[in-house]
Here is the input.
Amino acid sequence: MTTSNGRFLQYTDQPPPPTPQVLPPWLASLSSTPPSVSLSLSPWSHQPDTTMSIPVNGSMMGTLACHGFNPLAGDQNPLLSELAECCKDLEQGKQSWVAHKKEAEWRLKRVQLQLESEKASRRKEKMEAIEAKVRALREEQRASLDRIEAEYREQLAGLRREAEAKEQKLADQWAAKHSRLTTFLKQMGT
Here is the structure.
């Protein structure tokens, strides 16, 4: 016997239920006896509505089984067979769609991880480039400071040389004046 848990058909060892009549009893009797003109209310016409709809959380096969139809019992009616085939196709389409969705999610996650990796790599490259520029600027700064220091020492050395030259000149002038004064004093003292 087939039962439905809302999504899958389950099979048990119990004997299958009697196959439902495809035609209502009053129409089925017409095929064996000649038609007569008599109207009667058939109990079949007062049965609850057996319209089939696609359930939200289950399969169409389960819905058919709930309404007393066993689409797997054989080809009693071509419409039922076609309906069962459509339900099967629908179920397969749904499974295919779910598989496609899972694969798309997996691919999206993979692309996200790849983009994160690329972002981290680009960030690292950028940081290394900036650090290289900073090192180059520091080296340039040291070279500039060394040039300034060398120019300062050169200017200082030039100023010392000029000062020594002036001092030597003044010393020479003083020595010459002292020599003349000494000579003059000697000449006066004689």
About this structure: Residues 34-61 have pLDDT under 50 and may be disordered. The helical segments are 25-32, 60-66, 78-189. DSSP finds three helices and two strands in the chain. Residues 4 and 62 are 5 Å apart (CA to CA).
